[in-house]
Amino acid sequence: MTMPVKVTKRLRPDIWFDRHRYRWRELRLLVFVALFLLLGFFQLQVAAAVQTGKALPTNALPPLDAFIPAFGLIAALVVAHLALNILAPDTDQTLLPIAGALSSVGVVMATRLGPDLGRDDLGARQLVFVIVGLGACILTVWATRDLRWLRNYKYTWLAVGLVLVGVTLLKPSNFNTDSPSRDVLSIGSGGLAFQPSELLKICLVVFFAGYLSENREMLAQAFYRFGPLKLPPLKHLGPLIVMLGVALVLVVRLRELGLALLIFGLFLSMLYVASNRPLYVVGSLAAFAAGAFLALRIFSYARTRLDIVSSAFNPGVANDAGFQLVQGLIAFASGGIFGSGLGLGKPWIVPESATDFIASSIGEEFGFMGVLALIGLFMLLVYRGLHVAVNARDSFNQLLAVGLTAVFALQTMVILAGNLKVLPLTGVPLPFVAYGGSSLIANFVIIGLLLRLSQRNA
Question: Is residue 294 a part of any domain in this protein?
Fold first, then answer.
């Protein structure tokens, strides 16, 4: 007679201690983010001592309370890292560190600029926005365990975005707590405001990805010929044009030229990836050129922005409408190769130095090399996003990853070109770096979607 064997319930190896599944690369990259934060806040203390003529003690570090924002952001990044180990351990391990590094630059610069702009709480508010954004990122990863519901409800997401912008037209709030010195149309009350345009771009990407993936083969074929131009059936191309037109009309009514350019760029990039027809690109660019010409003829504010770019240094313009642009270029030039040093420049002279012209603030205090490093981080972010698209399992996931990545690429190019007097200045914020809550939270939602898309079985 065999004795009964006592069976103990064997627990699944905890992912926290599974050396092969743990996100070690992500953790190692986050160490560099933590070092940058600590060094940045240490330099701010040194700069403050230099500005006041006081020397820091040689045998003591600055008070620990000066590093509370750095410790807070490091803790939030570690919590997000641990949450990803539980929710999605096999997703991309570079997206969170890149977003964390860019956000760290934003927190450091907001903390540095706050006192000079009369907003001592600017850095603390930016830190809160980053923490909320990280929470939104993890919530997005958890909520998108099955991506099919995004594709199945593509028209619903489009309607949500358009309704939000439409509500803004009817009842705007002429303030924006995300910007210390400029007013934009937003929805809000009681001191809180949200820019629906930030949600609109995500909703449009989801719609374009769902619609193009379903009609990919039809869009790649030619049924009508207009000279060299070959078009698919209008019943397949028509809804895209109508939805794009509705979105652009709303944007033109809101005078958000940067958002109009962003939406058009998203449409163009996703349409090309879906159809693989360069002729669509040529035709769309021709249509854009015609639309831009009409906008310059019809809308006075469009002509004003173009005139500022073309005549910013003219007498009378440099001290008036072109003052912001001219001072931004001077800030870039004064930074030189290595910059004046964090906390040792005068970036607050440039209007909107924490928002629209945050790049000029970085250029003055971090120099040309600092701006190159910042651009390198954005290029790496775009590369990883396109890497997710290349490895996607189906066309919807591929197009969604392309569209979400294009948001970062287009926003970065538009705002940097505006700061450098290459394009008219728009209200598009520099992702993760510019001060603001709506944009920052929306960008982290995009990171959450890219993380889920990078999962092997997405």
Answer: no
- The token pair at 289 is 């050129």
Enter the pTM of the model: 0.88
Residues 418 and 350: beta-carbon distance below 8 Å: no
Question: What is the spatial distance between Cα 61 and Cα 38, in angstroms, rounded to a whole number?
Answer: 12
Bridge partners (DSSP) listed for residue 192 = 189
Question: Could you tell me the residue range of the domain that residue 262 belongs to?
Answer: 24-49+67-276+368-412+432-453
Residues linked to residue 229 through DSSP beta bridges, in sequence order: 226
SS3 153: coil
Angle at Cα 151 formed by Cα 149 and Cα 157, nearest 5°? 85
Contact 62, 68 (CB under 8 A): no
Written as tens digits, the pLDDT of the chain (458 aa) is: 455 544 444 444 444 445 667 899 999 999 999 999 999 999 998 888 877 766 555 555 677 778 888 999 999 999 999 999 999 999 999 999 999 999 999 999 999 999 888 888 899 999 999 999 999 999 999 999 888 888 888 888 888 877 877 776 665 544 444 443 343 455 554 445 667 778 888 988 998 899 888 877 776 665 566 655 666 666 666 666 776 676 667 666 666 777 778 888 888 888 888 877 777 777 777 777 777 777 777 777 777 777 777 777 777 777 777 788 888 899 999 999 999 999 888 888 888 888 889 999 999 999 999 999 999 999 999 999 999 999 988 889 999 999 999 999 999 999 998 899 888 877 788 999 999 888 999 999 999 999 999 986 55
DSSP secondary structure letter of residue 183? -
Q: Determine how many CB atoms are found less than 10 A away from the CB of residue 44.
A: 21
| Helix ranges, 179-256 (H) | 196-214, 216-220, 234-254
- CA–CA separation, 212 vs 390, rounded Å? 17
What is the token pair recorded at 138?
């993890």
> CA distances (Å), 388 to each of 22, 98, 399, 455, in order?
20, 15, 10, 9
Domain tally for the chain?
1
344, part of any domain: no
Q: What is the DSSP letter of 53?
A: T
Burial of 92: CB neighbours in 10 Å, binned 0-12, 13-18, 19+: buried
Residue 2 lies in a domain: no
Q: Is 173 helix (H, G, I), strand (E, B) or coil?
A: strand
Alpha-carbon distance of 362 to 342, in angstroms, equals 9
Instruction: Give the Å distances, CA to CA, from 394 to 128, 213, 221, 263, 388.
Output: 36, 9, 20, 24, 12
DSSP state of 186: B
User: Considering the domain boundaries, does residue 244 fall inside one?
Assistant: yes
Query: Which pair of structure tokens corresponds to residue 382?
Result: 């775009």
